[in-house]
Amino acid sequence: MTLGAWSKLVAAGVLALQAGPPAEAVPAGTILHVRLTTAASSQTSRAGDPVEAVLIAPIRLGTRVVPAGATLAGQVAEAVRHSVDREAKLRLQFTQVARGGETAPVVTRLVDVQNARERVDTEGTILGPRMEADSGWGRAELLGLAAVAPELFAADLAGTRLREGVRVDIAYKPGVELDLAVTASFTPGTALLQAAPALPALPASLIDVVVNAPVRTAAGHPPRPADLINLVFLGSSDAIAGAFLRAGWNTADALSARADVTAFLAIAGREGYRDGPVSLETLDGRDPDLVFQKGNNTFAKRHHVRIWRRGTWEGQPLWVAAGTHDIGVKFVVQDRTFTHRVERDVDIEREKVANDLAFAGVPPAAYVERPSAPRSIQNATADEMVTDGRVAVMRVTPRNWTNPVAWWPRRLHGPSALRIL
Known about the structure:
This protein is α+β, with helices and mostly antiparallel strands. The chain folds into 3 domains: 24-129 and 168-195, Lipocalin (Beta Barrel); 133-163, no CATH class; 204-395, no CATH class. Helix content is 19%, strand content 33%. It has 8 helices and 27 strands. It has helices at 3-19, 139-148, 150-154, 160-163, 204-211, 237-246, 257-268, 346-359, and strands at residues 31-36, 40-41, 50-55, 59-61, 64-66, 71-80, 89-99, 102-105, 107-113, 119-120, 126-127, 130-131, 166-167, 171-172, 177-184, 194-195, 216-219, 224-228, 231-234, 290-294, 302-313, 316-332, 337-342, 366-369, 376-378, 384-386, 390-395. The strands form 7 sheets. Strands 1, 3, 6, 7, 8, 9, 10, 11 and 15 form a 9-stranded antiparallel β-sheet that branches. Strands 19, 20, 21, 22, 23, 24 and 27 form a 7-stranded mixed β-sheet that branches. A 3-stranded antiparallel β-sheet has the order 4-5-16, with no helix packed on it. Strand 4 and strand 5 form a beta hairpin. The chain is globular. It starts with a helix and ends in a 26-residue tail after the last strand.
C-alpha cells in the first residue's frame, strides 16, 4: 500500500470515529404512538392542509431512543364530507419527524385512532360511523327495551336501528391519539436520538413489598377474581391526580341511576361519555380510592385504571393499581348487565399508563418481576387476560400542575338501576 493510500485510509477512519457509531434504523412495522396537536375533520379539512402530532411514547433503538416529545408533520391526504349515501372519510399522511432542529423523512400508515367510534381501513383511511336515527327505535324506546329485556338489545335486535342510522362527519380535536405504522425503514439523525434513560434501581425492601402485594382484584356478587394488579405508585394522592390529569386522563362519575342512563344512551348513540362510571371492583374488600380513564368519542372504548392505597413505604404513600383497556361492550347473562370487553394483553395498558405519565413529567417506571402472578387468566366476566407478570413502579413527586383537584376524589359507587358498567 502506498503512503498516499494509507493516509487516505487513516483519514477515513478518523472521520468515521468523529461521526460516532452508525445511526440505528427504525424498522418497518414499528408502531408510533402520537397525539394530534392540530385539529382534523372530514367536514372542514381539505386535502393538502397541514397536520401535526407529537410522539407520546419513545421509539426504542437498542441503547438509544427517539424520545417522546419529538414532533411529526404531514398533511391531510383526503377529506370527504358525509352525505346521504356516502360515509365520511379522512386520511392523514405523516411524512416527517423532527427534534432539536433536525428532521428525518418517514413513511407511515394510520392503523388506529385510539378509542374512536370510527374504523380505519387497510389503507389507513378513517371511515365515519352511522349514528342513531331519530325515527323508529328512538332513544326512549331503546332505553325501555334495555330495562325490560336487555337480552334483546344484547342480541342486537334493537341495534338494527343503529345500523340504519344517519351518517356523520369525523371531527378530531387536538389531543386525539393515533397509532401509526412505519411502512419503510428510516434512519433518524443524531439530533433525533438520545441515550435511553436508565431504569431506576429499586431498594430490596420496596421490591419485597411489590412482590408480596395482592395479585388480583375482585368483582361481582359473590366476588370473583377480576383484574391483575400491574402498577404501583409512590406519592401523594394530589401528586398522582395531577400527573394523570396532566397526561390527559380524567376521573369517573359515581355509579348511579343517572350515570347508567347516560351510559346507555352513549352506547345506543355511539357517543362518548367523558366521565363515564367504571364497574365496581374491590381489593381486600375495599373500593378503589382513585379511578382515572381516557376516552375519545365512544363509551365502548377507553383506557382506565383503578388505584388502591396500600399504606406507606419509608414514609411515602404507596398505591397499587389495575390498568385495563376497554375495547367493546357486551351483555353478561349471569349478571344481567352490560359491561366492557377488555384488551387481552394487559401489559399493553401497563405500558400506556407508564408512557403517558412519563410524557407528563413523571420519572420512568422500574419493573418488578412477580413469580407468583399468573400469566394467563380469565377476569370476572370471562375475558381472557395474558401478562408477563411484571409490575411497573413509578415515583410521582408533587409538581405545580395547573389542573384543579380540589373536587376529587369522588364516590365510586351508588344506587344503580340498569347497571351499564
